[in-house]
Amino acid sequence: MAINSHAEQPDNDSGNNSNKNGQPVFLILGDSLSAGYGVDREKNWVSLLQRRFNSKNLNLRIVNASISGDTTGNGLMRLPAALDKHRPDWLLIELGANDGLRGLPLKLIRSNLKKLIQMGQQSQAQVLLMAIRIPPNYGKKYTQRFNALYSELAQETGVTLLPFMLNNIAPHPELMQADRLHPTEQAQEMIMENIWEKIKDIVAAP
């Protein structure tokens, strides 16, 4: 989420590079919130979600193509190759926070997110869009319009909108790292449970 000067490599899966073996793929395109900034890889909510899939005998493989500091523009450059390589059945887009923290034009953010959604849909993936919330650094009007982008795009494109992963976490300082932008290790299980509740029926559907 936060602007980061270094770019981490995507926390890719440890399995095959595509779902040509018949195993469904759940691709996550995100920033530091999904890359697990400041948290051990195995304790990141994405790794916990993979374990939940396994415990429920859901033969799904998560590919975590998330990089700290990523913007929607970066995502546009990376997504085509990820779609071609992994051929996901589901695509979760978790981007936009770094755009908002930089005060990028809302029209640009909206356009980029829509293009990401359309790329996923054209690849035959079921697209999920995570709502993003930002602090009011650039004033109330900008923040409100930014927050509204996600529900508007979900309605326009017909994708599933997931609530912001930190909605019930950010208000609690003990669950946030010192920068107040990234969740702690303790919060990862809560994030996973919240996301699981929203997607379990989707991924379990025939």
The best one-word shape is globular
SSE arrangement, N to C: EHHEHEHHEHEH
**Unreliable stretches, pLDDT < 50, 5 or more residues?**
2-18
Task: Indicate the proportion of strand residues.
Answer: 5-15%
Task: Provide the CATH topology.
Answer: Rossmann fold
Total individual domains:
1
| Mean pLDDT over the residues | 91
Helix content: 40-55%
Summarize the main sheet.
5 strands, parallel
Our Rg estimate from Cα atoms comes to: 16 Å
Widest β-sheet, arrangement of strands: 2-1-3-4-5
Number of beta-strand segments? 5
Structure in a nutshell:
The protein is of the alpha/beta class and about 210 residues long. The chain is built from seven helices and five strands; from the N terminus they run E-H-H-E-H-E-H-H-E-H-E-H. Strand 4 (about 125-130), helix 6 and strand 5 form a beta-alpha-beta unit.
Question: Which helices and strands occur, and which strands form pairs?
Answer:
Elements: E1 25-30, H1 32-35, H2 45-55, E2 61-64, H3 72-86, E3 90-94, H4 97-101, H5 106-122, E4 126-130, H6 140-157, E5 160-162, H7 185-204
Parallel strand pairs: 1-2, 1-3, 3-4, 4-5
Helix pairs in contact: 2-7, 3-5, 5-6
Provide an overview of this structure:
There is one protein chain. The protein is an alpha/beta fold and 206 residues long. It has a single domain (25-204), classed as SGNH hydrolase (Rossmann fold). Helices cover 44% and strands 11% of the residues. It has a 5-stranded parallel beta sheet with strand order 2-1-3-4-5, sandwiched between helices. Helix 6 links the parallel strand 4 (126-130) and strand 5. The chain starts with 24 loop residues before the first strand and ends with a helix.
